[in-house]
Specification:
Layout (H helix, E strand, L loop, with lengths): L2 E7 L3 H12 L1 H8 L2 E8 L16 E2 L3 H4 L4 E6 L7 H10 L3 E4 L2 H18 L3 E2 L10 H6 L7 E7 L2 H13 L3 H10 L8 H4 L2 H15 L9 E2 L7 H9 L2 E11 L5 E11 L11 E8 L3 E8 L3 H21 L28 E11 L4 H11 L4 E6 L8 E8 L2 E2 H12 L4 E10 L5
Helix pairs in contact: 1-12, 4-5, 5-10, 7-8, 13-14
The structure holds L-homoserine.
Length: about 450
């Protein structure tokens, strides 16, 4: 029987998962491809640490060129992550005529266009299911069985670290810092979790998803990105009081006027929204297509085994194409023909219309509410409800929480700037966007 030979660059946690899956499910894969899919070479700077999987030492190398220069290797898996040297390695693999499988959302979000163009020139394919949602097969669905649809929205919870932290803050009333520290100790958060907690990882995933859904290039740096570091227990408990849960959402919407909203920020969603019950390290991604209607994907968005599942799914798809001799015939990594990919304009955040929870910290004295309400009214912002309790007063400052009706974000920001200049305000006021009608 012929074999499809594969080179793996990056032998970390996910790489070990791929090795384990290819080994344990060898027969299943062979039954589905009609050939054996075998790892011929694994390149990493560290080839001595024990990854908990059995690997023949002869496969391991510190010289990545042994993969690029091996004519028997037809598929390269890139699992080193980050921008460089991942970009150089992926481009070298393509230049050497190899198909590429990558889980690298950061690379695709920032340099996807160069990589897709290089693959098209060379007539090889690039697959990246594992880049978004770990084991959840959302990209294949968008490019495959849902491809007949025009998508109007894609949104969801796409970072397990943040969702784990917010879930524990919600369920235990714990502090952000305390949960983050514990998440690091448990291995749920990276030693340097900046990309996760600042929303960057979620924005990378949104950039990839929005490109596939809407057939557009996305300037990654234009995505409004806020993480969860500013969310406090008090925000979570007020949100609950009003019937909401706070989640870090990635939101992509095609607006009726042909613009695109792409934003990542903590969002209050009503308790009846299924995303409110997506807890811990799980991810959920919701799509709406004009014919299929709403579709919700749910599953493990990270971790060695789920991510390996997505990577091997890509390997199998490529192996089938190679076996059938049809690889590279329709090289459309975004699911759209190259000349159909457009540059949809992004809607500025000031123009986004949604409702808000505003939290002010003010001295408890006559006229404060009237002044705040006056500024909101002057800016055309209508109050839906409000609560002022003496929880934190200690005799002085109290939280005042106001829920607004829908308003333009620009008006809200102007109002907060004016309100924060009042002497009776003792902390910078907070806003959290509310999405009551995501669909
Ligand atoms: N660090 C990501 C998460 C997984 O916490 O979901 C990889 O994208």
């Amino acid at each position: 029987m012929n074999e499809i030979k594969v080179g793996l660059i990056g032998f970390g946690n996910i790489g070990a998962g791929v090795v384990r899956l290819l080994h344990e499910n060898r027969q299943t894969i062979q039954q589905k491809v009609g050939q054996n899919v075998v790892l011929k070479r694994i390149a990493d700077l560290d080839i001595t640490s024990d990854r908990g999987v059995d690997v023949d030492d002869s496969l391991l190398t510190t010289d990545v060129n042994q993969i690029f220069n091996d004519p028997e290797i037809s598929i390269v898996i890139e699992l080193i992550g980050g921008y460089e040297p991942a970009k150089t390695f992926v481009l070298k693999a393509i230049e050497a005529g190899k198909h590429v499988v990558t889980a690298n959302k950061a690379l695709l979000a920032l340099h996807g266009e160069d990589i897709y163009a290089a693959a098209a020139r060379k007539g090889v394919e690039i697959q990246f299911e594992a880049a978004v949602g770990g084991g959840i097969p959302v990209l294949s669905a968008i490019k495959g069985n849902l491809a007949g649809n025009r998508f109007t929205s894609v949104f969801g919870i796409m970072n397990g670290t943040c969702n784990y932290i917010l879930t524990r803050m919600t369920q235990e009333g714990a502090d952000f810092g305390e949960v983050l520290q514990n998440a690091k100790e448990l291995g749920y958060a990276e030693p340097d979790p900046t990309f996760d907690i600042e929303g960057t990882d979620t924005a990378h995933k949104l950039a990839v998803l929005a490109s596939l859904c809407f057939g557009t290039r996305i300037d990654f740096n234009s995505i409004h990105t806020e993480g969860i570091t500013g969310i406090s227990g008090i925000d979570i408990s007020y949100a609950a009081e009003f019937g909401y849960r706070i989640k870090l959402l990635a939101i992509g919407k095609r607006t009726v006027d042909g613009q695109l909203e792409v934003r990542v920020h903590p969002t209050m969603i009503p308790l009846h929204n299924p995303l409110a019950d997506v807890n811990g390290v799980f991810n959920a991604i919701h799509l709406t297509g004009d014919f299929v209607g709403p579709v919700l994907f749910y599953g493990r968005g990270a971790g060695s085994n789920p991510t390996a599942s997505a990577i091997v799914g890509d390997l199998i798809a490529l192996s089938r194409s190679i076996t059938a001799g049809i690889q590279g015939r329709c090289n459309a990594p975004l699911g759209f023909m190259d000349d159909a990919v457009v540059n949809l304009p992004l809607k500025p955040m000031e123009d986004i219309v949604t409702s808000f929870m505003l939290r002010f910290t003010a001295q408890d004295q006559p006229g404060v509410l009237a002044s705040i309400a006056g500024v909101l009214g002057k800016n055309g912002i209508s109050i839906a409800s409000m609560v002022q309790t003496a929880r934190h007063n200690g005799g002085k400052a109290v939280p005042i929480v106001i829920m607004t009706h829908e308003a333009e974000e620009g008006a809200i920001r102007a109002a907060l700037t004016e309100i924060d200049s009042f002497d009776f305000i003792s902390e910078k006021s907070r806003l959290i966007r509310i999405e009551d009608n995501l669909e």
